[in-house]
Amino acid sequence: MTIPYRPFGRTGVQVSALALGAMNFGARGNPDHEDGVRVIHRALDAGINIVDTADVYSQGESEVIVGKALADRRDDVFLATKFHGRMGDDVNRFGNSRRWIHRAVEDSLRRLGTDHIDLYQVHRPEEDTDFDETLGALTDLVRQGKVRYLGTSTFPPSRIVEGQWIAERRGRERVVAEQPPYSILARGVEAEVLPVAQRYGLAVIPWSPLAGGWLTGRYRAGGPQPESSRAARQPGRFEIGGAENAAKLEAVEALAVLAEQSGLTLIELALGFVLAHPAVTAPIIGPRTLEQLESQLGAADRPLPADVLDEIDKIVPPGTTLSSQDAGYAPPSLREPTIRRRPLG
Ligand SMILES: NC(=O)c1ccc[n+]([C@@H]2O[C@H](COP(=O)([O-])OP(=O)(O)OC[C@H]3O[C@@H](n4cnc5c(N)ncnc54)[C@H](OP(=O)(O)O)[C@@H]3O)[C@@H](O)[C@H]2O)c1
């Protein structure tokens, strides 16, 4: 198994075609720190060189575990984290303001045990904070050497474009990457986000490529409700019998048959699909255990043939998100199934 490397947008940095997400390390997933470190080391040994976390993942615990794992390996890893989510009761301990960003970055650097973050991402846009305020604060962090590159996550296309224009017109650092939700079951970003990212040369590192677990084979029609800490946190998104999930379940059944006919696991089919989009740099996988990591690593060197991609398009049409709970955000235009996911020809 070999994980190929891809350019990270137009930065000149090369990253592995799979990124390791650390959301599951800590109280909300796997509370065993040593086990988390083992999973991270195995991913790095397999060739993964980009790790994604966030301050809010288990309220800083994920960053602490990543920091432990990278203690002797920091220089070989492209380290990404995020700010925006609430980090305490105080009215200002969250958001995209200059005031919070300067505090949040110090907290993340301390927890990660490093003096710089390679990619510092705005976890979500915020309507009542001027984006120029946010980009101005982030530009200062780049100039101070605390941050190398800027990214966004789950930004609608208009906000992505706005960020590029602010950078150009006001001399701010440019956002170089977007982290959107994207999987076979959540294809809304094919409509505008992915084409916009391509137009501006942004790296794209999608989250939840297995739709949070729906594309692992554990969710099957007539089967039991799978055990998952996620179901407790977001019951609507993971309840197998929920009305909003009926279309997902139907698609999963068809995809399982397609995977078997294609000699792939459902996980390989799902990750291969995200990897195949020309705008995508590296899907962020989110294993909770070593076994889950092993089940995903092989996907990086099993590209899906065109006929398999065509069959997927018949099961979930391009541009379609089957449940708004998987969309992260759901402006109506993103759910219109009008845009092909691959260029013609
Ligand atoms: N920017 C954002 O807003 C945002 C949002 C979400 C995630 N992310 C990033 O994206 C990363 C990946 O997201 P994700 O965790 O939602 O990804 P995902 O790959 O869609 O889902 C991962 C889940 O799939 C299940 N799974 C994986 N392998 C399995 C296997 N072999 N057998 C059975 N179940 C398996 C596990 O569920 P169980 O834990 O239930 O076993 C695991 O937690 C995160 O770590 C984070 O870095 C970012």
Automatic annotation (TrEMBL):
InterPro entries per record: AKR, AKR_Detox_Biosynth, NAD(P)_OxRdtase_dom_sf, NADP_OxRdtase_dom
Region (Disordered): 316-345
UniProt xrefs under Pfam families: Aldo_ket_red (PF00248)
Key words of the record: Oxidoreductase
Keyword Repressor among record annotations: no
Residue ranges of every copy of the NADP-dependent oxidoreductase domain listed in the record: 18-316
PANTHER family: NAD(P)-LINKED OXIDOREDUCTASE SUPERFAMILY PROTEIN (PTHR43364:SF4), NADH-SPECIFIC METHYLGLYOXAL REDUCTASE-RELATED (PTHR43364)
Name of the protein: Aldo/keto reductase
Lineage: Bacteria, Bacillati, Actinomycetota, Actinomycetes, Kitasatosporales
